[in-house]
Amino acid sequence: MLSYWRQYLAISPFYLVFAVFSLFPVFFSLFLAFQHWDGLSEMKYVGLQQFQFLLRDPVFWLSVRNTLVIWVLSTVPTLFGALVLAALVHSVRRFKGFYRIALFLPNVTSIVAVTLFFGAVFSNNFGLVNAILGAVGIAPLPWLSNPWLIKVVIAALMTWMWTGYNMIIYLAGMQAIPPEVHEAARIDGAGPVRAFFGITLPMLRPIILFTVVISTINGLQSFSEPQVLFGTNAANASLGGPGQAGLTTLLYFYQEAFMNNDYGYGAAIVWAFLVLIIVLVLVNWRLVQRGRKP
Amino acid sequence: MTRRWRGLGPHVVLVAAVAISVFPFAWTIVMATNTTTDIYHSPPKLTPGSHLFENIGNVLANIDFFGSMLNTLIVATVTTALVVFIDSLAAFAFAKFDFPGRRVLFGLLLVFMMLPLQLGTLPQFVIMSQIGWVGTLQALIPPALANAFGIFWMRQYISGGVPDELLDAARIDGCGFFRQYWNVAVPLMRPALSFLSIYAFVNAWNDYIWPLIVLTDPSRLTLQVALAQLNVGHNTDYSMVMAGVLMASVPMVAVFALFARGFIAGAAEGALRG
């Protein structure tokens, strides 16, 4: 063991930082979920009270519903669009590099900047989207006050940011499929559509699985979008816009923990949320796995 | 006619997708160079105007734009340097040396990569307030250093990109572990180091949640937090907001434009091997 001290030294900074700033916090927040604490006064052990309250807290469940709806509305078009675009980029001979760069570009912008942009464009009164609708004779829609449209705007924003990223991953996966496989299919008389469903899709399965898991983990953590879209207003303690329609679970956690200084309840929210993420990842995993032909 | 046009279908769809992808950048410029009255007029003005400097002036009057940009630059630079050093050194040990516990430790790393980090936000804040770092810029750095993805990605690169023969030769010449890392491996992993640098830098630059929570001093914010503050009140001056968005986005788009190819390839590769 001793002769390896240099290797252990080399890997130790990461594990030290990780232990202090990631691992310990995860367990400490579990501990906090059983306490009543405002961060200043004495901690008080309250057992399962926070969780009992949580199960009956309508705002928590509202936030879970919001999160799930936004997640479905963004993940499905993102992954589907990414797959289609990847197949198209893969099929063309010219401008491949240009398409890759141009489609990936949205992913390097900051969420704050993108959200401010979407807020301006979807503005209820004279935003560009409503102006265009008006030009073709459709009455303006209340994008930023209707509970459903709020979610559509947030999901559209996430779709815009993440489609190119997933496209790049699918594209790399397609390029890794040996051309001989497609060649053989072509000789056997399979058209491009047949080849896509018969060869490309099954061979991409592990990568699709990866993107589904990553999109589940990331997509459920939406926070900045509604937070920036509707601003933080000290006078108005309820975040997430009109009717709290944009209040995601992480945003609710932020509100309880950092605006209302209810650390214990914040920790309980976050842990309940983790369980939800794990369940959804497992469900999705099973769904994608089951799609596999026996 | 059929032969010439058959290949065009995909291009039509792709060009439409590119248009959606770059449209916000173009429209940001239009909004940032006009007055709010001009854009929120029916019909709106669709071409760039001449009010850019006026709008920039309004941004500077509302938030400490350059101060917060400097803060972001400092934090992002320090974070990037540390992440690249910590991750590449650890990855080198994992890729080229067999030591007891290597498999278990690396396996743990893969689990860490999946962990939703928001879970630890609250205790991280408690730690920061215990050591008196709340409101300071250094509070932003430690949580960003535990970058499991970086180690994972670098290890993949080093396994293939740094030949064992060279390390053996260096060992015979009397180079210890750290000399092998610094003199042999580092020069060979330049492409991977530059990918990881850009990746870490872009992440640090765009980070929002943690700075929002921990930077409690309004006179000391990062760019993203300051930028978000432009969006308050009911009569938002959208042209001013978009001028801020434009100013804040230019550096990242420039970095991306310079390194796009390597960056995209790196992102895809990291995902594929995962």
UniProtKB/TrEMBL annotation, chain A:
GO biological processes: transmembrane transport
Ranges annotated as spanning the membrane: 12-34, 68-89, 101-122, 148-172, 193-217, 263-285
Gene3D superfamilies: MetI-like
InterPro entries cross-referenced by the UniProt entry: ABC_transporter_permease (IPR051393), MetI-like (IPR000515), MetI-like_sf (IPR035906)
CDD domains tied to this protein: TM_PBP2
The ABC transmembrane type-1 domain, residue ranges: 64-284
Pfam family name, one: BPD_transp_1
Any GO CC annotation of this UniProt entry: plasma membrane
Keywords: Cell membrane, Membrane, Transmembrane, Transmembrane helix, Transport
Main location class: membrane
Annotated PROSITE patterns: ABC_TM1
Bilayer topology annotation: Multi-pass membrane protein
Locations listed in the record: Cell membrane
Entries under PANTHER family matching the protein: ABC TRANSPORTER PERMEASE PROTEIN (PTHR30193), INNER MEMBRANE ABC TRANSPORTER PERMEASE PROTEIN YCJO (PTHR30193:SF37)
Protein family: Belongs to the binding-protein-dependent transport system permease family.
Stated name of the protein: Cellobiose transport system permease protein
Native species: Kutzneria buriramensis
From TrEMBL, chain B:
Domain ABC transmembrane type-1: 69-259
Listed transmembrane segments: 12-32, 73-95, 104-125, 131-153, 240-264
Keyword Heme: no
Subcellular localization: Cell membrane
Membrane topology type: Multi-pass membrane protein
Primary location: membrane
Biological process according to GO: transmembrane transport
Family to which the UniProt record says this protein belongs: Belongs to the binding-protein-dependent transport system permease family.
Descriptive protein name: Cellobiose transport system permease protein
Provenance organism: Kutzneria buriramensis
